Amino acid sequence: LVPVMLHPKKKVKAFAVSQYTRGPVMGYSIRTQNHRLTYWVGGHFRSNKPFDPAKVTARELYDYKNDPGETRNLIDDKKYQKVVKTMQKQLLGFFQHQSTAGNDEADTSFK
Questions:
Q1: Which residue from 22, 55, 80, 102 has the least number of CB within 10 angstroms?
Q2: What one-character DSSP code corresponds to residue 96?
Q3: For the whole model, what pTM was predicted?
Q4: Partner residues linked to 20 by β-bridges
Q5: Concatenated DSSP letters for 39-92?
Q6: Which of 28, 13, 36 is nearest to 111 (CA)?
Q7: Quick check: 111 pLDDT over 70?
Protein backbone atom coordinates (compact mmCIF):
# COMPACT_ATOMS: atom_id res chain seq x y z
CA LEU A 1 0.00 0.00 0.00
CA VAL A 2 2.98 2.31 0.30
CA PRO A 3 2.89 3.18 -3.44
CA VAL A 4 -0.74 4.25 -3.09
CA MET A 5 -0.02 6.26 0.03
CA LEU A 6 2.82 8.05 -1.77
CA HIS A 7 0.83 8.44 -5.00
CA PRO A 8 -2.91 8.64 -4.18
CA LYS A 9 -3.98 8.39 -7.84
CA LYS A 10 -2.21 5.03 -8.24
CA LYS A 11 -4.46 1.95 -8.19
CA VAL A 12 -3.71 -1.31 -6.40
CA LYS A 13 -6.42 -3.35 -8.13
CA ALA A 14 -8.96 -2.81 -10.90
CA PHE A 15 -11.86 -3.64 -8.58
CA ALA A 16 -12.89 -4.21 -4.98
CA VAL A 17 -14.76 -7.27 -3.69
CA SER A 18 -17.42 -7.15 -0.99
CA GLN A 19 -19.77 -9.64 0.61
CA TYR A 20 -23.23 -9.15 2.12
CA THR A 21 -25.78 -11.44 3.70
CA ARG A 22 -29.50 -11.29 3.04
CA GLY A 23 -31.04 -14.04 5.15
CA PRO A 24 -29.89 -17.41 3.78
CA VAL A 25 -28.50 -15.80 0.61
CA MET A 26 -25.00 -14.34 0.32
CA GLY A 27 -24.23 -11.42 -2.00
CA TYR A 28 -20.82 -11.08 -3.62
CA SER A 29 -19.99 -7.86 -5.44
CA ILE A 30 -17.27 -6.61 -7.73
CA ARG A 31 -17.03 -2.81 -7.65
CA THR A 32 -15.12 -0.72 -10.17
CA GLN A 33 -14.99 3.04 -10.44
CA ASN A 34 -18.16 3.09 -12.57
CA HIS A 35 -20.06 -0.16 -11.93
CA ARG A 36 -21.07 -2.75 -9.36
CA LEU A 37 -21.96 -6.33 -10.23
CA THR A 38 -23.54 -8.50 -7.52
CA TYR A 39 -24.37 -12.19 -7.52
CA TRP A 40 -26.82 -13.36 -4.86
CA VAL A 41 -25.99 -16.99 -4.13
CA GLY A 42 -28.00 -19.46 -2.04
CA GLY A 43 -27.46 -23.07 -1.11
CA HIS A 44 -25.02 -22.30 1.70
CA PHE A 45 -22.39 -21.18 -0.84
CA ARG A 46 -19.22 -19.61 0.51
CA SER A 47 -16.43 -18.19 -1.63
CA ASN A 48 -13.92 -20.78 -0.38
CA LYS A 49 -16.04 -23.53 -1.99
CA PRO A 50 -16.26 -24.33 -5.73
CA PHE A 51 -18.71 -21.97 -7.43
CA ASP A 52 -21.96 -23.49 -8.72
CA PRO A 53 -23.88 -21.15 -11.09
CA ALA A 54 -27.08 -23.08 -10.34
CA LYS A 55 -27.02 -21.55 -6.84
CA VAL A 56 -27.25 -17.96 -8.16
CA THR A 57 -30.66 -16.62 -7.16
CA ALA A 58 -30.28 -13.10 -8.59
CA ARG A 59 -27.80 -10.80 -10.33
CA GLU A 60 -27.52 -7.02 -10.29
CA LEU A 61 -25.54 -4.44 -12.24
CA TYR A 62 -25.50 -0.73 -11.45
CA ASP A 63 -23.91 2.18 -13.29
CA TYR A 64 -22.61 4.71 -10.74
CA LYS A 65 -21.92 7.33 -13.38
CA ASN A 66 -25.56 7.48 -14.59
CA ASP A 67 -27.37 6.09 -11.53
CA PRO A 68 -25.41 6.69 -8.31
CA GLY A 69 -28.49 5.83 -6.23
CA GLU A 70 -28.70 2.31 -7.70
CA THR A 71 -32.32 2.68 -8.78
CA ARG A 72 -32.09 0.66 -12.02
CA ASN A 73 -30.72 -2.88 -12.29
CA LEU A 74 -29.01 -3.06 -15.70
CA ILE A 75 -28.10 -6.75 -15.69
CA ASP A 76 -30.35 -7.53 -18.69
CA ASP A 77 -29.77 -4.26 -20.56
CA LYS A 78 -28.17 -5.11 -23.93
CA LYS A 79 -26.06 -1.92 -23.83
CA TYR A 80 -24.29 -3.19 -20.69
CA GLN A 81 -23.53 -6.78 -21.72
CA LYS A 82 -19.84 -6.05 -22.35
CA VAL A 83 -19.58 -4.63 -18.81
CA VAL A 84 -21.47 -7.65 -17.42
CA LYS A 85 -19.18 -10.07 -19.23
CA THR A 86 -16.00 -8.33 -18.06
CA MET A 87 -17.13 -8.01 -14.44
CA GLN A 88 -18.56 -11.53 -14.38
CA LYS A 89 -15.14 -12.82 -15.47
CA GLN A 90 -13.54 -10.89 -12.60
CA LEU A 91 -16.05 -12.23 -10.06
CA LEU A 92 -15.72 -15.82 -11.27
CA GLY A 93 -11.93 -15.42 -11.18
CA PHE A 94 -12.23 -14.30 -7.57
CA PHE A 95 -14.38 -17.35 -6.72
CA GLN A 96 -11.88 -19.65 -8.47
CA HIS A 97 -8.99 -18.09 -6.58
CA GLN A 98 -10.76 -18.33 -3.23
CA SER A 99 -11.70 -21.99 -3.69
CA THR A 100 -8.14 -23.04 -4.55
CA ALA A 101 -6.01 -20.76 -2.35
CA GLY A 102 -4.94 -21.57 1.18
CA ASN A 103 -6.50 -19.37 3.87
CA ASP A 104 -3.13 -17.85 4.77
CA GLU A 105 -2.05 -17.00 1.22
CA ALA A 106 -1.90 -13.37 0.17
CA ASP A 107 -1.90 -14.05 -3.58
CA THR A 108 -3.96 -11.59 -5.62
CA SER A 109 -3.43 -13.21 -9.02
CA PHE A 110 -7.21 -13.35 -9.59
CA LYS A 111 -7.25 -9.69 -10.67
A1: 102
A2: H
A3: 0.81
A4: 27
A5: EEE-TT--TTS---GGGEEEEEEEETTT-TT--S--TT-GGGHHHHHHHHHHHH
A6: 13
A7: no
Greatest CA separation for the chain: 44
Distances (CA, A) of 52 to 29, 33, 63: 16, 27, 26
Confidence tier at 106 by pLDDT (50, 70, 90): very low
- CA-CA distance, 28 to 72, in Å (whole number)? 18
Q: Which amino acid is at 12?
A: V
The conformational region for residue 43 under phi > 0 = left, psi -120 to 50 = alpha, else beta, is: left
3-state class (DSSP) for residue 19: strand
Arithmetic mean of pLDDT, 53-68? 96
Which of 102 and 14 is assigned the larger pLDDT? 14
What pLDDT, on a 0 to 100 scale, did the predictor assign at position 102?
A: 62
